[in-house]
Amino acid sequence: METFVQQFPPFREAPAHGHDDHGHPEHHEPGFWSKYIFSTDHKTIGIQYGFVALCFMLFGFVLMMLMRWQIAHPGIPVPLFGPLLEKVLGQVAAKGAISPDLYNSFGAMHGTIMVFLGVVPLAFAAFGNYVVPLMIGAPDMTVPRINMASFHAFFLGGVVMLVSFFIPGGAAQAGWTSYSPLATTIPTNGQAFWLVGMVLLITSSLLGAVNFIATIIQLRAPGMTWMRLPFFVWAQFVTAFILLLAFPPLEAAGVLQLMDNVAHTSFFLPTGLAVGGQLADRSGGGSPLLWQHLFWFLGHPEVYVLILPAMGIVAEVIANNTRKPLWGYKSLVYSALFVGFLSFIVWAHHMYLTGMGQKIATFFQTTTMIISIPSVIILTCMFLSLWGGSIRINTPMLFALGFLPMFGIGGLTGLPLGLAAADLYLHDTYYVIAHCHYVVAPGTMFALFAGV
User: Fold this and answer.
1) Considering only CA atoms, which of 379, 348, 340 is closest in space to residue 366?
2) Residues with Cβ < 8 Å from 23, sequence gap 6 or more?
3) CA-CA to 203 of 20 to 30 Å: which in 11, 24, 301, 439?
4) How many angstroms separate the Cα of 183 from the Cα of each of 5, 60, 140?
5) Of 113, 70, 119, 104, which is closest to residue 175 (Cα–Cα)?
């Protein structure tokens, strides 16, 4: 008890002052800029992340609807918004129709915006900043100013991405994966803007991840032992470690590809590369496969960055609305930790078509099958948590219940893609897009709507 009192000194009432007593300093309310723009309060930063991320998600949704119009009605002007597109974007949207180059830009930016500017900031940064300190009894994040810097880097990265739509040549056109040599040979500066934006977004994620790890380790209230942490906090903790370890290789790769674009180096450009029937005027000697390895070393852990916070949100919503503790809490925790570890040794299942050897392919097939097991355990624990509960059916609970089968379908459709024999035929088809979107759209987004 003595140590508790030392840590938390007893409340002392402030001495009473009359209206005429001017001995105490006046209390100044923070102004608009310090309260809402340069705030270091974790709840304000969480709301900032949430509002901006939801705006980017809406913009990404609009891009998707425009692409869908082009697929359904090729070459036909977009109704209502066609003249506005031509006015804002110029020749690539001539007569209000979506040109092939503009379609490629929309595809690349839709994927980038939804993943890096929408879902991850909302699932990890917004909910994490607002809720984690409250759940563990912390007064704030460990380093509030780094928390503020993290949001500002994220916001600047988003602005750079958006500005690229309005430069000559338009935004990036090499897909959200930005594969070399395509990303370096397209005649637009949009790819350079994309890379600068990605470097800022990665820096933001790294600052946030360090802060979350330090906060959860150092600032837990007395008595808040590891196995008393809410599952949402565990999910954020594992996600922070994934970000901290998986993002630096992509940041380094982004800087190298930026040098390929603006300084005419050839880190990812092979010898003898022909562009438009002419040999490229580069020295060559680089490796396009190196970019794929560095990208997917983040790319697959990124899937669990998307899904683990969502699982944490759904777990809390289910526990609250069934009015009983989660079933199999320790199984949930150990499964989340196992997923975090295994996510780093499955990345090359995106690369079966690159001509890898049979032994390497077998290794990645095996790890891909194994990583499905803890995901199934987490899903099973959530289904069993419903059993025997006094269930409240409200809007968050409906979204949480919708998440469970949607994520299940997303996982099941991923199993054939983990096997090289099936993936050889399914790779780069709409089946892969469907698998990805089952996990992220009705999966993660249902969970986010439940949390909001």
Assistant:
1) 348
2) 17
3) 439
4) 60, 21, 41
5) 104
Give the range of the structural domain holding residue 420, as residue numbers without chain letter.
Answer: 287-452
Mean pLDDT score of the chain: 90
Q: How many domains does the chain have?
A: 1
Total Cβ atoms within 10 A of residue 331:
16
Per-residue pLDDT tens over the stretch 262-317: 998 999 999 888 887 788 777 778 999 999 999 999 999 999 999 999 999 999 99
Asked if residue 186 is part of any domain, the answer here is: no
Predicted model pTM? 0.90
* Alpha carbon of residue 225 to chain centroid: 28
Closest C-alpha among 202, 203, 172, 198 to residue 185: 172
Length of the chain counted residue by residue: 452
What are the strands, taking DSSP E only, across 230-374? 274-275, 278-279
Residue 305 lies in a domain: yes
What is the residue type of 382?
M
In a domain, 180, yes or no: no
Residue 228 lies in a domain: no
Structure tokens at 248: 């630096």
